[in-house]
Amino acid sequence: MAERRRRKRLNDRLSMLRSVVPKISKMDRTSILGDTIDYMKELLERINNLQEEIEVGSPNQLNLLNIFKDVKPNEVLVRNSPKFDVERRNVDTRIEICCAPKPGLLLSTVTSLEALGLEIQQCVISCFNDFAMQASCSEEMEQRAMLSSEDIKQALFRNAGYGGRCL
C-alpha cells in the first residue's frame, strides 16, 4: 500500500509538471523530466539576459525591445487596455473579455451573464497575468429582443470595475 501511494504521488506530480512545462515532447517520465530541465535552463538564461540588460542600464529603446521580443503583440494589448467583444448570431452569443484581474471577477462575470439571461454553453478562462474569458452563450428568445450586443458589452465592462462607457 505504501508503494502504491508513493507511485500515485509520483504520477500526480509528473502530471502537474507536464501541465506547467510547455513543449513536452513525449509523455514518458524521462522525457517529461528532460524537457523540464531544458525549460528551466532556458528560463535561467532569460533571467540572466534580463539582469545583464538591467545592469547595463542604458535607457535606449533597444533594451525595451529586447525585453519584449518574446511577448506577442496581443499580450501587450491585453495588458494596456481592456477588451470586451460581444458577437451575436441567432440565439447564440460569443463573448470575449480581456482585462486586468481582480478578486471575484470570474464569479461576478458569470452572475452578470446569468442576470442578462445568457446561459454559458462553453467557456475558456485564463488568469495568467490578465483575466481572459471566451464564452459561447445561448439565450432565451424574449431576452434577445430586449438586449443589444452593446448592452451586454457595457454590462460586462461595468462588472469588471471600469466606470463610464466601454470604448
Word description of this protein:
The relative contact order is 0.10. The radius of gyration is 22 Å and the shape is extended. The protein starts with a helix and ends in an 8-residue tail after the last helix. The chain has helices at residues 2-20, 29-56, 61-67, 73-80, 105-115, 141-146, 149-159; strands spanning 83-89, 92-99, 118-126, 131-139. The protein has 2 domains: 2-67; 79-159, ACT domain (Alpha-Beta Plaits), CATH 3.30.70.260. Strands 1-2-4-3 form a 4-stranded antiparallel sheet. Helix content is 54%, strand content 20%. By secondary structure, it is of the alpha+beta class. The model is unreliable at 74-79 (pLDDT under 50).
